[in-house]
Write a structure and sequence with these properties.
With 308 residues, the protein is α+β, with helices and mostly antiparallel strands. It has ten helices and seven strands. The longest helix has 36 residues, at 211-246.
Length: 308
């Protein structure tokens, strides 16, 4: 019997294979893997954005010994994600000043209230305080800036012994704005032709002098520095005190007028202005603390407050 092709295709012969249970499981697993990888990528990006927007960093300064430290912590909408981590950053210049006793250093670790936050950076704002003025000058020595105050102080010990205590006094009164005037006054004095040791490259170094010449130089610088800086500071504090009084900054005005009287005790006009100022509230003295031990590379605390 002869068979004839009818031209009709059997639908079963062109149909796709029906997936088995194993194939379905493979497809499901692939979808889960893709979804998992995408979720992981989104999670990593989200954590990165969260950490970058919640990072808080800053710097703090203590007048005692000109100590410095940086800090960092994570914070989201007022909720802490980590403890505060501190790193000491006190430079060689500050350590030398304390060692030479040109600034006072109690040898104690500053209390929380004695640390001044002068630089605080968050995701959407940045705070910079007045101590940054002094810190910028201290940093110049570390970064080989325009003025190397470490080298200058080493080569001009007489001038340095007069200048640095006055800079610390200004810092104690929160008058950092006067620091540039004091520094540049003394730098200009040290550049006078009568001074054999100055910042010039070809100038003789103090270590090259004999013991007698070094002692004579220090005595000369100390005398000349005091005679020049004292009247300069009297005028500087007088003007600053009047400016503070006019802006109703009683605390700074009182401090400045007290400094004027330190240099000119018989200034009746300044005493009269000082008497007009309201009395400052007396602060209770805190108990003495234990001497500070050598600080580790980093320290951790859960304190949330920073003095600004």
């Amino acid at each position: 019997m002869q068979l004839f092709h009818s031209g009709v295709t059997n639908p079963l012969s062109s149909a796709k294979p029906i997936p088995t249970g194993i194939d379905k499981r493979k497809q499901t697993t692939s979808r889960f893997l893709v979804f998992g990888l995408l979720s992981l990528v989104v999670l990593v990006i989200g954590i990165g954005i969260l950490l970058s927007t919640s990072t808080n960093t800053g710097e703090q300064f203590a007048v005692d010994g000109f100590q410095r430290r940086t800090f960092s912590y994570y914070d989201v909408l007022g909720y802490r994600l980590s403890a505060t981590e501190y790193f000491p950053t006190t430079g060689n210049l500050e350590q030398m000043l304390a060692k030479k006793k040109w600034i006072t250093s109690t040898g104690k670790k500053p209390k929380d209230s004695e640390w001044i936050t002068f630089n605080h950076i968050t995701f959407n704002q940045a705070y910079v305080g007045d101590p940054q003025i002094l810190v910028d000058y201290l940093e110049m020595s570390n970064n080989q800036g325009a003025i190397d105050l470490l080298a200058w102080s080493t080569n001009n010990p007489g001038y340095a012994s007069v200048m640095w205590p006055e800079i610390q006094t200004a810092a104690q009164g929160n008058m950092y704005i006067l620091v540039p005037d004091i520094i540049h006054h003394m730098l200009a004095l040290s550049e006078l032709s009568g001074n054999s040791i100055h910042r010039g490259k070809d100038a003789p170094k103090i270590e090259d002098l004999s013991k007698e010449k070094k002692a004579a130089l220090i005595a000369q610088q100390t005398k000349r520095g005091t005679e020049s800086l004292d009247p300069f500071l009297e005028t500087l504090y007088r003007d600053a005190g009047k400016a503070a009084q006019e802006s109703a900054d009683t605390k700074r005005a009182r401090f400045c007028y007290e400094q004027v009287l330190r240099f000119a005790p018989n200034s009746a006009d300044i005493q009269a202005e000082l008497d007009k100022l309201p009395d400052e509230p007396v602060e209770e003295s805190a108990a003495d603390e234990e001497p500070v031990e050598e600080e580790p590379t980093a320290e951790f605390t859960s304190e949330d407050d920073f003095e600004q």
